[in-house]
């Protein structure tokens, strides 16, 4: 299946300041994550029959409504998340998908894989050459999982799930194509579990607030990203709370009895 990766300049805090849209197919195309207008999409808009997004964050959905109107395409969203999709894009979806839904592209199928965590509605799209994964993984660095929307337990489960599926390559929204999916998923799992250990150790040492835990659990300069790191720490605290290892009331963390 033909794939075209189209990096788009958008307002995003992801490194590089771009979100990659993808065109899958030749004559009947699926357009994924059209975050902004681009002439490379415009030249093939008459062949776009389906539009979908990996999730609803602003740096992924910015041009969904415009391209849906131009292409008269079928617009898809995650089942049960229709209201959130409308708020994010300004239009109603034509159809919904869930795990295993097949979207027909050039007499072939693109399969929806549910990958929540970074966002509750996050999905990936599997095809013959690999998987479009949105913000599930990056080739370098890490992915933010920002509470209250982000769910660290779900995120780790999604990474493990994709690792088990063993696609040939991963095509992320930010950064280069991932040529070794298994190693990348394992690296990100290790990173998150290591951060969890640091967060737990910070609570164990008597730190109670997110700000204090940040100062204890991070050994790097957080200038410009401290708010994102704080929301990720909250996601770690929520996971530890649900597992019964700490108590977290949304403002203070203590060790569980």
Notes on the protein architecture:
It is built from eight helices and 13 strands. α5 (152-165) packs antiparallel against α6, α6 (181-204) packs across α8 (226-242) and α7 crosses α8 (226-242). It is elongated. Helices cover 34% and strands 24% of the residues. It has helices at residues 39-42, 58-61, 64-71, 82-89, 152-165, 181-204, 210-217, 226-242; strands at residues 3-9, 18-24, 29-32, 48-52, 74-78, 95-97, 102-105, 108-114, 123-127, 130-134, 170-172, 246-248, 253-255. The chain is an alpha/beta fold. The chain has a domain at 3-146 and 165-179: 4-Layer Sandwich (Metallo-beta-lactamase, Chain A). 44% of the residues are buried.
Could you spell the SSE succession in H and E letters?
EEEHEHHEHEEEEEHEHHHEE
CATH A-level architecture of one domain: 4-Layer Sandwich
Structural class: alpha/beta
- Please tell me what the overall shape is: elongated
- What is the end-to-end distance? 55 Å
Which CATH class of one domain applies here?
Answer: Alpha Beta
Outline the fold blueprint.
Blueprint: E1 3-9, E2 18-24, E3 29-32, H1 39-42, E4 48-52, H2 58-61, H3 64-71, E5 74-78, H4 82-89, E6 95-97, E7 102-105, E8 108-114, E9 123-127, E10 130-134, H5 152-165, E11 170-172, H6 181-204, H7 210-217, H8 226-242, E12 246-248, E13 253-255
Helix pairs in contact: 5-6, 6-7, 6-8, 7-8
């Amino acid at each position: 299946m033909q794939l075209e990766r189209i990096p788009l300049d958008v307002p995003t805090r992801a490194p590089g300041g771009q979100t990659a849209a993808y065109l899958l197919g030749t004559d009947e195309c699926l357009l994924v994550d059209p975050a902004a207008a681009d002439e490379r999409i415009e030249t093939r808009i008459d062949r776009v029959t389906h539009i979908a997004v990996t999730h609803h964050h602003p740096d992924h959905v910015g041009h969904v409504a415009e391209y849906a109107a131009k292409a008269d395409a079928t617009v898809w969203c995650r089942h049960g998340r229709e209201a959130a999709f409308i708020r994010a894009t300004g239009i109603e979806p034509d159809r919904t998908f869930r795990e295993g839904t097949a979207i027909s592209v050039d007499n072939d199928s693109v399969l929806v894989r549910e990958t929540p965590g970074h966002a509750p509605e996050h999905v990936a799209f599997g095809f013959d050459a690999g998987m479009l994964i949105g913000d599930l993984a990056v080739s370098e660095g890490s992915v933010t999982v920002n509470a209250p929307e982000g769910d660290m337990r779900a995120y780790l489960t999604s990474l493990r799930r994709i690792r088990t599926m063993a696609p040939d390559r991963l095509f992320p929204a930010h950064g280069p194509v991932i040529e070794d999916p298994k190693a990348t998923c394992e690296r990100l799992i290790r990173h998150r579990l290591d951060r969890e250990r640091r967060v737990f150790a910070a609570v164990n040492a008597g730190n109670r607030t997110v700000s204090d835990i940040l100062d204890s659990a991070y050994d790097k300069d957080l200038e410009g990203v401290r708010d994102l790191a704080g929301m990720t720490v909250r996601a770690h605290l929520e996971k530890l709370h649900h597992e019964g290892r700490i108590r977290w009331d949304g403002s203070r963390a203590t060790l569980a009895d």
